[in-house]
Design goal:
With 354 residues, the protein is an alpha/beta fold. The protein has twelve helices and eleven strands. It folds into two domains: 186 residues, Aldehyde Dehydrogenase, Chain A, domain 1; 130 residues, Aldehyde Dehydrogenase, Chain A, domain 2, CATH 3.40.309. Helix 5 links the parallel strand 1 and strand 2. It is globular, with a radius of gyration of 21 Å.
């Protein structure tokens, strides 16, 4: 199976996944997948919240939408062309330890390993046990040669390299356990935004989405926003309430909001809220679920200094200040395929394993 074959299989997978983000199915949307498999995947998405209350169908389809954009043939060709994977005759066993904070969060690593011609030995998070195996089953339907290149396992024995994503605590364990082999170890990261005060209504809606897509659980969710002096916080609150008032009916989310409200009140920590989101005047990158930190600035140098001091903890910076921001408002959860996590080129890492 050469690179062209691998790209074709993923492109067909992308066409299938796109059928879940379209209001009307195209006649050829299923590719080589029959209607029964399409129905099975639809039912899995519909009922997944029974396995994980954070993984509702809206967020699963949102993840699928982002993935399907990567899986266009031309995009996959451009993504891989500089690495010369057609010459890869040495397939290695690459262990993947997947996070489970948002749906299919480990798909990019899965894609990179298989495109590069290696074998993926996958240890899943207990929070997301069923989506990736179904994706793998679909992929092997398009090209059965993938069946001996994908293995799901509870233990990563006899692997030649590891790509692991987890918390700060688990990352220390990963480094200790896998430090003797080639590895990419990712720990906690969050994202931030920088506002000018001149954002359009659409850009503020985009900010609200960057904060609350996936209930704020992703590393690309905005948890801290820099605002200019005398900024009207209602500009943040209004799109949050208009778009996300339904969160008041989500028990897990509201439990977090109620808990944080109680903690801040008991400890006399100032905050403001609108019943959906708590805003806390705190210059900290990390914030709990249902909380957005904010801090005022007078000069852009203040933001640049914070980014430099926290660069190993920041995944992306949303906004429209060119020399500071690398993501447009509303696009934080839809990175380009070549926007490697933690700015580590996964394909280059895999190329060196040959």
């Amino acid at each position: 199976m050469n690179l062209s074959d691998r790209i074709e299989a993923f492109a067909l997978l992308g066409e299938f996944l796109q059928s879940f983000t379209q209001k009307e199915k195209k006649n050829d949307a299923f590719g080589g997948i029959d209607e029964a498999q399409h129905k099975e995947f639809s039912e899995l998405i519909e009922n997944y919240h029974h396995y994980n209350g954070w993984f509702d169908k809206t967020n699963i389809k949102r993840a699928i939408e982002g993935i399907s954009k990567w899986l266009e043939r031309e995009i996959l060709v451009r993504f891989t062309e500089k690495y010369d994977f057609n010459q890869n005759n040495t397939s290695k066993n690459v262990g993947l330890i997947l996070a489970g904070n948002i749906p299919l969060v480990g798909f990019h690593d899965f894609l990179c390993v298989l495109l590069s011609g290696h074998k993926a030995i996958i240890k899943q998070s207990s929070n997301d046990l069923y989506l990736m195996p179904f994706i793998a089953k679909l992929l092997t339907t398009y090209n059965p040669s993938f069946s001996n290149r994908i293995n799901f396992s509870d233990r990563l024995n006899n692997v030649d390299a590891v790509i692991a994503t987890g918390s700060n605590n688990s990352s220390r364990y990963f480094k200790s356990y896998f430090g003797h082999i080639p590895h990419i170890i990712r720990a906690n990261r969050k994202s931030m935004a920088a506002l000018t005060g001149n954002e359009s209504k659409e850009e503020l809606i985009g900010l609200a989405n960057d904060v609350l897509f996936y209930y704020g659980l992703g590393c690309r969710n905005i948890s801290l926003v820099f605002i200019p002096k005398n900024y009207d916080l209602n500009l943040i609150f209004e799109p949050v309430f208009s778009l996300y008032s339904h969160l008041q009916f989500h028990q897990k989310y509201m439990n977090n909001l109620d808990y944080n409200r109680a903690v801040y009140s008991l400890n006399e920590i100032p905050f403001t809220e609108n019943g959906i989101l708590i805003l806390r005047n705190q210059k900290e990158l990390f914030a709990p679920v249902a909380v957005l930190n904010y801090t005022e600035y007078q000069h852009l140098e203040e933001i640049e200094e914070f980014i430099e001091l926290n660069k190993n903890n920041i995944q992306c910076v949303a906004g429209k200040i060119e020399k500071i921001c690398n993501t447009s408002p509303g696009e934080a959860q839809f990175p380009e395929i070549a926007a490697f996590a933690d700015d580590i080129d996964t394909l280059q890492f895999l190329k060196k394993l040959e």
